[in-house]
């Protein structure tokens, strides 16, 4: 019984460690997440959509190629928007 309670407590503690936040209880968004120059962060959204950030070492073409591989099963995204952002690029689109 004691072990079951400890495991339950650990599960609850881990569940409390939610997604990163930018401040307080506000979930982090693509515009608030910082990435290193050579890093890319991609979030998969519903309906084949995606969004993310890439560091300053990436080019727009490299971002589109990587997203095609990671999110669109190797196919070119139907839409993708890449825009300069603090420290690199932000992007979003749909497969």
TrEMBL record:
UniProt superkingdom: Bacteria
Keyword hit for Signal: yes
PROSITE patterns: PROKAR_LIPOPROTEIN
Keyword vocabulary terms for this entry: Signal
Signal peptide (residue range): 1-15
Protein name per Swiss-Prot or TrEMBL: Lipoprotein
Organism: Paracoccus tegillarcae
């Amino acid at each position: 019984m004691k072990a079951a309670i400890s495991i339950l407590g650990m599960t609850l503690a881990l569940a409390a460690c939610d997604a990163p936040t930018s401040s307080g209880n506000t979930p982090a968004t693509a515009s608030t997440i910082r990435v290193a120059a050579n890093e890319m962060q991609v979030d998969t959204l519903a309906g084949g959509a995606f969004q993310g950030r890439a560091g300053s070492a990436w080019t727009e073409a490299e971002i589109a190629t990587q997203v095609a591989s990671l999110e669109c099963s190797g196919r070119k995204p139907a839409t993708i928007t890449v825009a300069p952002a603090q420290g690199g690029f932000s992007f979003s689109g749909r497969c």
